[in-house]
Structures are given as structure tokens and as C-alpha cells.
């Protein structure tokens, strides 16, 4: 896996790639020209490297924060002022983000970088590479990466400007969401004939034919949201292309959790497209890290997981989301959670913490608040306000004591990496998996699409479930039970916002969020983007960026 990662880690980053986060173009700042570099296959690959480095950059940060913290899947309250950060994180929960929210701005900035660097790379390779299969494949791969970035922008912001020509620095207005959808669809369809038909080590970390088909399926399943017109039969056809390829299979119950371990990689049978990570690799100019354990592991459990650092543990799930995991004790997916009383790795020795009575509960009123107090760590399901005046509830600070730091169940699907000497992890993160193909096809048929290949929604869902639980197969399936199954299957994989919107649940109430405004299905265009590109206009219903 790490050799594959280094395939894209090139010295080409020293070329000095710069970006414009709003013009979506990247000016070349180097003397290098095609008659000097790149001139051979190795150098062509190195030239493509920055596209993948850029995509890796904020995938586990800006993409995850926006797609998961805005749902009932996760919440990140401040704890004693820690992680308040200008209210950026908790605004995701309350759905009261503005155009100045740093997370909303980071997502726009990151996807724009991927698009701009893709445009630059296409321009360089088009001039440097001789015509032929190698050029066609590489150009198709980069255009597919650009299409993925445009998909993320379209899904998150709706109408966005389309830039494809490197060197075009005009202030361009937004294209409609429907136009962006059609652009992405055409890019993917045009790329498929030239993308590799292989999977595994040879294409890992780069898009192949089935990456494009899987993304098309995702788009068609959500087409009514994006364009106003349902395309469930097209979703089914795209899923069938992946199924008929014979390249992928559902991981068994014994290997489900291993898909997300630090040693995962191209051997995972479900990975259609994954983002490789390596804590030893240096990525200049981008974040490029994956810090899930830092955010999800309670600080008291550092020894349990053998971590080289003390985790911050600000991120929890909500009881409403965890409820999807409470009715089947035989489901292997339950093991991705830290809940209740905590024990060391042997499963027997309690995790004990020694503090003071006041350190355990800052609202303790006894005169012996400084007395030593030792307790077994126990994570609570509920996340509650404690001692907060009504006028400060919007800040949602749960406190800076042991009770506060143990609030909320934690997800460790991307298992803590004890082998890393820093907070970054080796775990690769899947973007598209084969189980999603089967569940998308089941949903498309349930929503009115025509069944194919002898498949039924029940058969497809039970195919996934038979590899996750030893409980009796389902006898029926509805959209609601399918939604709940998607919650279990794709927890913490950054698809939950997409699912909630499609199922009409994004306007619901969970945790402390009561906002039901449909405008929040889209994020506002960031203030920085509006400033740098005067042709942009704010999304509807965000007056003054609010």
C-alpha cells in the first residue's frame, strides 16, 4: 500500500504549484517546459501526482466535517473552551453556519484546488505526452478526479462555476446545478472507455472504469435532488456495470472491520476507490493527513490503543444515530463503537483515572473538592448541557471535567494506528465501496426503477447483511429500513448528509438542533470566494451570508 502511495508522492511538488481557490485555475510558476520535463512514463506519473496529493489533502477534514457534523452522525461540542474555534464546529450541528464559517470555506477551497491543479496537469500532459493509449488513460484519470471534485462541490453548494481550461482567469458566474450535473456526467462517460479495466494493486488510489460507473450511480440515485428529474433506471444500469465487472465482492463478517484498519489497502475486495494515507509521507502545500483517532479516542484510552500521542477526543456520536446499532447484538458493525465502561486491550482490566472530586465534576459543591477521586472510565450515551446559562446555550460548551470528556459514544471504525509515531494514521479511507453499489441498486428499485439481473431489493440488502450479522435474514425491506442499514454500513464514511437529504431527513431534529430550513441542504458560497470572484452570487436564502 505504501509503495502505491509513494507512486504519487513526487518531487514534482517542488515545481511550486500555486492555486487560486476561487478561479479554479493554477498558474505555473516554473521554468519547466515539456521539452525538459515531463518526457517519459515515470515523469508523466510524477506530473499527475499533485492531483492525488491535493485530493488527499482535505478529504478526511473539510469533506468529513461538512458531510458528517451536519448530520445526526456526529457532534463536536466545545469542552471548557477547547474546540470552540469561533463556533465553526458546533455551527455544523445547529445548521446555523454562515458564509464566514471556516469549515464551509475549507471545503470550497480544497475542491477548488483539486480542480485547478487538475486543469494545470491536463494542460501539461496534453502538451508533453505523445498520442496513444498511455496518454488517453492518464488524461481520463485526471478528468475523473476533477469530476469527483466537481461532484463534491455540486453536492455541497449547488450552483458552481465550471472551469476546464488552464490559464482562464476570468471571473466566471455559477453554472446551474443541473448544468454542473450534466458536465460531470459527460466527463465520466467520456472517460470510461479510456480508464483501466483492472482493479487492485495496479490501479489502487487512481480511478478505473468502475470508479466512474460507481460515481455515476451515486449521481443518478440523487438526480432528483440535483436536477429535479429522477433517474433510477440509469442508477441501476451504472450499478450493473460494476456488478458485471466481477472485480469486487462483499467482505465477510470476519473481515468487515479490517477494511478500515491501518494495514488496509488494495487487498480489500470492496474498495472501488480509496484514498491512501501514510504518516511517513511529507506532502508539501497540503494537509494530507488522517486524524480520526485524534478526534475519536478518549484521552484516557491512550494506553489501551498504544498511541504515541494523547488524543483530543472532542468528537462523539448522538443517541439518535447510535439507535441504528442497538437492535442486533450479532452485527459485527457494533464493534466500531466505544461505549459504556472501558477496559484495557485485554478486555478485563478496567481503565482507571485518578483526579479530584472537582476534576471529575466541576460543579461539585462539597468542601473537599480537592480530594483525590479515582473512577473507571465510562462513556455516556447522552450529551447534555451542564450549568450553562440559557443565553450561552448556543456556544454549547459541555464543560472541562471528566464527566464532560466522557460524554458521547465514540466511533473507531478507522482503528487507531499504534504503529504511527505521530497523530497521522496509515488507514486508507474508501470513497466508493461495493456494498454501496448493492444498496444503491436496492434503493433505486424500491424507488421505482426496474429490477435487473434477477436482483430484488431484499436479495441485495440480505447479501450485504449476511456478511455483517449472523441474525436471521430480513423477510422484507422498506425505504426506512434500507436507510437504517445505510447508517450502519457507512457510518463515518462521509455519506450520511447525502443520504439524509435524499431520504428527506436532513430537516429533522436531533441532539440540540431544531432547524428545519430546507435552504440548509446547501452551504453558502464562502465570503472569500465572493470577494475574489465578483461574478459569483450568494446561494438563495443566505442574505448577507447568513
UniProtKB/TrEMBL annotation:
The keyword Aminoacyl-tRNA synthetase does not apply. Its main location: membrane. Keywords: Cell outer membrane, Membrane, Signal. It holds the Pfam family SusD_RagB. The keyword Signal applies. InterPro entries: SusD-like_N, SusD_RagB_dom, TPR-like_helical_dom_sf. Residues 93-221 form the SusD-like N-terminal domain. It is found in: Cell outer membrane. It comes from the Bacteria. Residues 399-542 form the RagB/SusD domain. Gene3D superfamilies: 1.25.40.390. Belongs to the SusD family. This is RagB/SusD family nutrient uptake outer membrane protein. It comes from Flavobacterium pokkalii.
